[in-house]
Amino acid sequence: MIGAALPEGIEVTHLATATATATATDDRMVRLRAPLDVHSFGINQVILQPGQRNRIHSHTAQEEVYVVLAGTLTLVLEGEGHDFAPGAVVKVAPGVRRQLTNRQREPLSLLAVGGLAAHQHNVHDGEAFLSWDDPSPRLIGDVPLPDDCPPDPA
Fold it and tell me: Which range marks the domain in which residue 121 is found?
């Protein structure tokens, strides 16, 4: 099954390396929404070289989540800077002015995910199955986690 053709509805793209310059736009973003054919939210990779920053901006109805992949994000919120290391996940509400800044000496790479704040997540939208042969979906909470798989041999 590993390496088999992907089922319909699955799209794959790759992140740029942190040392690359953002390719497709001059606002330092690698657009991921279109290559993934995503319709319900926006997703971009932001790459800032040392000293670079993006414009000050806000959104009237969109929440944004930033996931720091490499480097240190200085997120300026309403004029005050806050540093976030790799692994940080930061949500910024609509109406808050923000600026993404790289004040460090190494490149910064992060994911920016945005969607409408009024969206209500429906946890009951998901379905779980006991096995690949199980034709009957169940509520996710009604299906126990499976046994762990052994790691691939070295």
Answer: 12-144
Nearest residue to 113 via CA among 46, 15, 52, 49: 46
| CATH classification at residue 123 | 2.60.120.10
Q: Which of 42, 44, 43 is nearest to 23 (CA)?
A: 44
| Number of compact structural domains in the chain | 1
Distance CA 16, CA 109 (A): 9
For the segment 33-44, the average pLDDT, to the nearest whole number, is 87
**pLDDT at residue number 68:** 96
3-27: string of b/e by CB count within 10 Å (b at 16+)? eeeeeeeeeeeeeeebeeebeeeee
Q: Quick one: which of 146, 41, 148, 54 has its CA closest to 98?
A: 54
Name the percent of the chain lying above pLDDT 70.
83
Q: What 8-state DSSP symbol labels residue 95? A: T
